[in-house]
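Re: that chain you flagged

S.,

Sorry for the slow reply, it's been a week of failed gels. I finally had a moment to sit down with the sequence you sent. For the record, here it is as I used it:
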Amino acid sequence: MNNKRINRISEEIRKVVSNLLFNGLKDPRINHMATITSVEVTRDLSFANIYISVLGDDLEKENTILGLESAKGFIRKEIGNRVDLRHVPEPKFHLDESIENAMHMAKLIDEINKQNQGHRGNEDE
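Prediction finished late last night. Pasting the structure tokens below so you have them in one place:
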């Protein structure tokens, strides 16, 4: 199948699921600070791998994924209603920790830069 079409479908599914996160899902387990980072649809349109970033501790992340898993049928039905597809892909939710990893790396780089500035200050004296 055409890569452009797969990318368009992935983007449409991302929009639908993002909208559902903010407006449609009432499960209290789902953290209100959850965002969809990306969606990758398989070439045969059988699965939609949905990557979720959750701001919070590990328990909130786990609960959000559990809440989304329990609402999988509703989410699939809404994707089918809002995106014109012959076969609606089954959503699979994955936790995306890339944002947190990037924040951790930035923090480490800042600490190293501060240490280097401290050592340079001692050398000048």
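What I noticed first: DSSP finds four helices and three strands in the chain.

Talk soon,
D.
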